[in-house]
Amino acid sequence: MDGWAFLEHGADLARRGESFALATVVWRQGPSSGKESCRAIVTASGELHGWIGGACAEPVVIRQAREVIAEGVPRLLLLGTPDQFSESLPDGMLFVPISCSSEGSLEVYIEPVQPSPHLVVVGHSPMAQTLGELARALGWRADVIAGEDFTAEHANARSIVVVATQGHHDEEAITAAVAAKPAYIGLVGSAKRGRTVLGYLAERGVPAAELERVHSPAGLDLGRTTHQEIAVAILAELVQLRAAGKLAVAGPGGVAEVGEAEATTGAGVTGGAGVTGGAGAAAAAGAAAGAAAGAAEPAEAVDPVCGMTVTAGRGAYPLELDGVTYYFCCLGCRNAFAKDKSRC
């Protein structure tokens, strides 16, 4: 995937509200299958679209990209063998040792691409129109839908729904919004009106836990204001919540999922200096514990020869010894390990 197809795929992910990372090779030292300007899109779930390099570089870039998506901060990677580079690196560059028979090296810049928030304003008042316009001025995707036309299909788990129906179809709009389970639901109106609407829905069986998610009244309390200022107050609250990380508007497999993956895989990425027995011992201990517990095959493992973190599976040259399965970055490491069983 390259050229327009590559760009169109990224645009499609953004339209669907999915976070992803863009990885670009900015320097190479041959021999290496990755070339300057090679690019790849990495999704939060770890799918790679494009080309960044061969079997040595690809799993490292995927892991680092998922961390970049979770943190929202770009990083510059230097991938190479431990003896190629001194310990002195430019500020901001992360050296990740890899074991590659080609002995090539790459610099890869990984940047996060966060989708624009999706705001659904339910209502047709001047305030609703103003709120939609202000959100678009921030680069957000904004839909303004009349209350009688709004359904749960207009929003999803990453949407922000603000109900501003001003007494027209309030209950129906909140019911539909609750069914969509968006990242945020806000009801525009007085606190008294909010209590009336939510109390009515509670009496009709809408679960209390769902109703507790409704922000009523929506927006920061600015006192008596104009409809334009009410729109500003609502958008200000949304910006505040988003900046504090309290709006789950990222794509599937977002921060929580990637964070869990980091707990099991992060050490193998930057701790790749374990090209001696340390990494192998850790891999063996982890694999043995999994086998003893009858656990499923791990998602990732550390190559006990070179210290690289690899995706555990049939493509990682599995080798079973004494009931423990080991995984390797290449056939050379597997053969070396098999010949020297003292590494166990």
If you had to describe this structure to a student in words, what would you say it looks like?
The chain has helices at 3-15, 57-71, 126-137, 170-180, 191-203, 208-211, 227-243, 255-270, 277-293, 331-339; strands at 20-29, 39-43, 48-50, 75-80, 93-97, 105-113, 118-122, 141-145, 159-163, 184-187, 214-215, 300-302, 309-311, 319-321, 324-326. The strands form four sheets. It has a six-stranded mixed beta sheet with strand order 3-2-1-6-4-5. Strands 8-7-9-10-11 form a five-stranded parallel beta sheet, sandwiched between helices. It has 344 residues and is α/β, with parallel strands linked by helices. Helix 4 (170-180) links the parallel strand 9 and strand 10 (184-187). The chain is built from ten helices and 15 strands.
Task: Give the secondary structure arrangement, pairings included.
Blueprint: H1 3-15, E1 20-29, E2 39-43, E3 48-50, H2 57-71, E4 75-80, E5 93-97, E6 105-113, E7 118-122, H3 126-137, E8 141-145, E9 159-163, H4 170-180, E10 184-187, H5 191-203, H6 208-211, E11 214-215, H7 227-243, H8 255-270, H9 277-293, E12 300-302, E13 309-311, E14 319-321, E15 324-326, H10 331-339
Parallel strand pairs: 4-5, 7-8, 7-9, 9-10, 10-11
Antiparallel strand pairs: 1-2, 1-6, 2-3, 4-6, 12-13, 14-15
Helix pairs in contact: 2-8, 3-7
